[in-house]
Write a structure and sequence with these properties.
The complex is a heterodimer. By secondary structure, chain A is mainly α. In chain A, about 80% of the residues lie in helices and about 0% in strands. Chain A starts with a helix and ends with a helix. By secondary structure, chain B is mainly alpha-helical. Chains A and B meet through α2, α3, α4, α6 and α7 of A and α2, α3, α4, α5 and α6 of B.
């Protein structure tokens, strides 16, 4: 017995493996305090929510069954959304290719890359809807405003990622191609592009997917596509038509995800 | 390869090809479909070319109307609306967690083994992500009327898919050693969740939530356009009244807040990960 006692260490010496992380606890307490403050500040009350729940039942009642009788309108909006997404993705990707190249700090000097980076950051800061409003005001209602909006949104996203991808490349190959006396264009084509092409393709398919989603939304502020159909259906309280449009949007986005997965698998 | 080793007298094909024939064909098919889609869209899209040529002039006109920015308008209504926007984003992000954490657990194959659970979780996550936050806002405005609640719920419902998906992936990537050790001690499943899974996903959890909060700040700025509260209401009112200098003030406020939120989140995430 004495031998066993000498082997087991004193229980007090062992640190608690499940010690409380005070930093995280403080964060939780702060969040709880914030919750109380913000609910008061926004004037949220339970009555408001519970009366809303009654309306929610009402709304769902009106939404079902979905009404596909005006399918021509639905199809028109859908086709326009697709067109906006395809054109905007193409233009956005082409423009981003050049901007990404100019924004990469390992290929360009600072006085070129800094303003280009600032431009990309500016494109990314504003939500597509705000950009859409500005374009609707300047080029009028319709698909053109939607296309321009999504081009700007695409630049903000993929030009930044593309610049980052280029900054991570191995410079040995660049050096090797330069040593042969190649021009800058050849260096880009044969040393930079092969290293980043697959990643760039990944970003592009993601952006196509994302543009498809956004093309169904920019119509809410008048920039063409299915969003406009949806918004007018909402304003006329045609909730069964709203349900039909929502189903089509979800199907479209799932189809888009399927397509971009397929493309990614082919080019892997 | 097999034929060349079996019959060495036949010449080995030294011509190296990076891709097999079927890979090449499928790649060309993708290119072809993309080009066809592009050409078809270009031909059928309804764009009035005069509007396009006119665009730079119209843009210049709009920006000239925005100048000088009406800074006196900031204390009048922009400040309160901006705070409301931040509150909508934060509260929406917190509310999301209530739905996102259970769905993430259901979606993680190392927590719940049943494929039924995965399908149910995935259905909710995908439908949350497919519907845009503005559309969610339209739905909730139809339910609750134009109010802040609609904005908070729109943000929360839109974020569920994003947070749930990323959190589920983070849970799947953890080291199962501590979980096994806890199971061996006979710990209850709540103890396993809290002391086995939770400490391991903690950095990823805060990183994901902060990332989503950053996105939500941007999104909550536009929810007001459909009546769901925040700075968007000020923006759309000013725009409907053609008060372009006030529009510029609201846009500037959004710009500054979004940039600050992003800098904050980037710095915190750098320390977390």
């Amino acid at each position: 017995m004495a031998g066993v006692d000498s082997v087991t260490p004193a229980p007090a010496a062992r640190p608690n493996p499940f010690a409380r992380n005070w930093f995280v606890t403080v964060i939780w307490l702060l969040l709880a305090g914030y919750l109380v403050y913000s609910i008061n500040a926004l004037g949220l009350s339970w009555e408001r929510i519970s009366t809303g729940m009654g309306y929610a039942g009402n709304l769902l009642d009106k939404m079902f069954p979905p009404n596909f009788s005006r399918w021509e309108l639905l199809l028109g909006g859908l086709v326009e959304s697709l067109e906006i997404a395809v054109i905007a993705s193409f233009v956005g990707i082409v423009v981003s290719l050049f901007l990404g190249l100019f924004a990469a700090r390992n290929l360009m000097s600072g006085w070129i890359s800094s303003p280009v980076r600032a431009l990309i950051a500016l494109c990314r800061t504003f939500h597509p809807v705000i950009i859409a409003i500005l374009f609707v005001k300047s080029v009028g209602f319709g698909a053109l405003a939607g296309i321009l909006t999504l081009v700007v949104a695409s630049i903000g996203f993929i030009a930044k990622l593309f610049a980052e991808a280029i900054e991570e490349i191995s410079l040995k190959q660049v050096e090797a191609i330069r040593a042969t006396g190649a021009s800058f264009v050849s260096v880009v084509l044969f040393a930079v592009m092969p290293q980043v092409f697959s990643r760039f393709l990944g970003f592009s398919t993601y952006q196509l997917d994302s543009n498809l989603r956004n093309s169904t939304m920019v119509g809410i502020v008048g920039a063409g596509g299915l969003g406009g159909t949806l918004f007018s259906a909402f304003q006329r309280f045609d909730y069964d038509f709203v349900a039909a449009i929502l189903i089509v949007i979800i199907a479209l986005i799932m189809f888009g995800e399927f397509i971009s997965n397929l493309v990614r698998r082919i080019f892997k | 390869m097999k034929t060349s080793t079996a019959t060495p007298q036949t010449a080995i094909d030294h011509h190296w090809q990076r891709f097999t024939l079927s890979q090449k064909l499928s790649r060309y098919a993708v290119y072809l479909v993309l080009i066809m889609a592009l050409v078809l869209s270009m031909q059928t899209v309804e764009v009035i070319p005069e509007f396009f040529y006119d665009a730079p002039e119209q843009m210049a006109d709009m920006f000239s109307r925005m100048w000088p920015i009406d800074f006196a308008y900031y204390p009048v209504s922009v400040h309160d609306a901006m705070l409301e926007t931040l509150n909508i984003a934060t509260l929406g992000t917190l509310l999301t967690l209530i739905f996102a954490i259970p769905l993430a657990l259901m979606n993680a194959s190392n927590v719940v083994a049943s494929p039924w659970c995965h399908w149910i979780a995935r259905f909710f996550l995908v439908s949350s992500r497919s519907v845009n936050s503005l559309v969610w806002a339209l739905l909730f405005v139809a339910i609750f009327g134009p109010s802040v609640i609609a904005g908070v719920l729109a943000i929360a419902f839109r974020s569920v898919g994003f947070v749930g998906k990323l959190l589920g992936e983070a849970i799947e990537e953890i080291n199962m050693g501590p979980i096994e050790a806890l199971t061996a001690t006979g710990a209850s499943w709540t103890a396993i969740l809290l002391k086995g899974y939770w400490p391991q996903i903690l950095p990823a959890f805060f990183s994901i939530v902060l990332f989503r909060w950053d996105i939500n700040v941007r999104e909550s700025a536009v929810l007001g356009l459909v009546g769901a509260g925040g700075i968007g209401v000020v923006l759309s009112d000013a725009m409907n009244l053609f008060e372009w200098q006030r529009v510029a003030m609201a846009l500037l406020a959004i710009f500054v807040v979004v940039i600050l939120a992003e800098i904050l989140v980037v710095n915190i995430r750098k320390r977390l990960l």
